UniProtKB/TrEMBL annotation:
Amine oxidase domain segment(s): 14-435
Pfam family for this entry, one: Amino_oxidase
UniProt name for this protein: Phytoene dehydrogenase
InterPro entries recorded: Amino_oxidase, FAD/NAD-bd_sf, SQase_HpnE, Zeta_carotene_desat/Oxidored
Domain of life, per lineage: Bacteria
GO molecular function ontology, one term from the record: oxidoreductase activity
Length: 451
């Protein structure tokens, strides 16, 4: 066995779930402590009449390889539908509908030529310039700290992108992927998304959408997997502190104390700042990562108003809309969920105002919505959906390893090289497992020698 004999994982989001499974598979006795009554962290669902609604629409790209491996381990691979090829309908009250659809053939990045050439939301000259910028973006190294020091917006301007191209092409994708506008986004993270997701591999950017609510995708199957692997699970158990005790660590909760050889701290960055002992992690600059909001507007119509499974919408700002009728189990009509990223200013906006504005926006792009009745509509707000993925944040993200060999950090906000995504969360959990395996190898050998 490489790794500790016993471990506690604090936090049951995708990072914690991954770490718990990874450690258990290496023979460690694992217990996971989660403050909320469920697993899945930021990915969760709730019941509203007949609907099982997600608080936030989640999508993946085919290049989310580690996340898909986790789904396979959870037996949930069939619960996501991935497109045969990247194909995003783009609609607007001001333009004719168009789409971003990749070609079927040709080496990367030539597969994107049809997508850009046919993208009627931009004038032809802008499309040509976009092809040249896409080609230049392939030369940006996402792991180079210099790439993190500047914004994607500045880089785009330097590469001849007009405000229209930034708004209707790069911004449309950047805001959805990074939850921040190009003018503020880290070039390194944008390069990671655009290179890994679109430019370096033909199929990488094909979009996947869960067929089921998020709790059915993550919470329920994770519980079953934990039971199968003998992982202990305590939900509703908030951790209050971590301290050294002899060769191991002690974790203090509201109900008592638990000892273990090792701990994976897999909580959001603000909680990690409260829990990580300064002696183990003296540099806690991650406190400056900040937060970025996502707001979802949910509308149940009495009848279908669109045949599109999802679409990107260009208007004042861009947003994406998803048909979740079947996934949420809506018995009648059509259930649409609009995802509004980089939505800080909506966090304090009254629900009625968001709802009224958004129903008009939907009616502007789906004419059938003008004659449909709204059976139900509601708003979900996640003020801390992701960290604020601006320029300069790369230097603030800590690695999994801490000064204590028995304590590892995890979470989509740690230094995974990936944006704050489900893929980043899973990668962080894997990195924590590797870190503990490495730091416990010599000790395990020593114990064997002594025995
Ligand atoms: C609305 C929304 C939309 C999103 N859309 C996408 C998308 O389309 N695609 C994508 O890839 N990603 C998306 N994301 C981001 C993605 O959900 C996150 O990156 C990922 O789920 C983070 O996982 P995590 O395990 O790192 O953290 P979390 O999911 O935050 O898990 C941390 C866990 O720690 C627990 N915890 C905190 N404090 C304590 C404590 N003291 N004791 C015990 N437990 C504690 C929390 O309750 C939580 O369960 C979205 C996020 C939101 C909110």
């Amino acid at each position: 066995m490489s790794g500790p004999n016993s471990a506690l994982v604090v936090g049951g989001g995708l990072a914690g779930i991954t770490a718990a499974i990874g450690l258990a598979q290496r023979g460690t006795r694992v217990t996971l402590l989660e403050a909320r009554p469920r697993l899945g962290g930021a990915t969760y669902s709730f019941q509203r009449d007949s609907l099982t609604a997600d608080t936030g629409q989640h999508v993946l790209l085919r290049c989310y390889s580690r996340y898909q491996e986790l789904l396979a381990r959870l037996g949930a691979s069939d619960d996501i539908a991935i497109q045969d090829r990247l194909d995003v309908p783009v609609i607007s009250p001001h333009h004719r509908p168009t789409r971003l659809r990749r070609g079927l053939h040709g080496p990367a990045p030539l597969h994107l030529l049809p997508a850009l050439a046919g993208y009627r939301a931009l004038p032809t000259a802008d499309r040509i310039r976009a092809v040249l910028a896409a080609s230049a973006l392939r030369g940006v190294d996402p792991d180079d700290p210099a790439s993190d020091a500047i914004t994607f917006g500045a880089w785009l301007r330097r590469h001849g992108q007009t405000p229209a191209a930034v708004d209707r092409l790069w911004g449309l994708l950047c805001i959805a992927a990074l939850n921040i506008v190009p003018e503020q986004a880290s070039l390194a993270l944008a390069a990671r998304v655009f290179r890994t997701g679109l430019l370096d591999d033909v199929r990488a950017g094909d979009i996947g959408v869960p067929r089921v609510p998020l709790s059915r995708l993550h919470d329920a199957p994770a519980r079953q997997t934990f039971a199968r692997l003998g992982i202990g699970l305590h939900t509703g158990e908030r951790v209050r502190g971590i301290s050294e005790s002899g060769p191991g660590l002690t974790v203090r909760t509201d109900t008592g104390e638990v000892d273990a050889d090792a701990v994976v701290l897999a909580v959001p960055h603000a909680a990690a700042a409260r829990l990580a002992p300064a002696a183990a992690v003296p540099d806690q600059r991650w406190n400056e990562l900040g937060d970025a909001a996502i707001v979802n507007v949910h509308v149940l119509y009495d009848r279908p108003v669109t045949a599109l499974p999802f679409a990107a919408v260009l208007g004042s700002g861009s947003w994406w809309v998803f048909d979740r009728t079947e996934a949420a189990g809506a018995a009648h009509g059509q259930y649409l969920v609009s995802s509004l990223s980089a939505a800080q200013e909506l966090i304090g906006t009254p629900t009625e105002e968001i709802r009224t504005r958004h129903l008009s926006a939907l009616a502007a792009v789906f004419p059938a919505a003008r004659n449909a009745s709204v059976v139900d509509s509601f708003v979900t707000r996640e003020p801390r959906a992701t960290f604020r993925q601006g320029a300069g944040t790369g230097a603030l993200r800590p690695p999994a390893a801490t000064r204590w060999p028995s304590l590892a950090l995890a979470g989509a906000w740690t230094a995974t090289g990936w944006p704050d995504t489900m893929e980043g969360a899973v990668r962080s959990g894997l990195a924590a497992v590797e870190t503990l395996a490495t730091s416990f190898k010599p000790q395990a050998q020593t114990r064997e020698v002594i025995a």
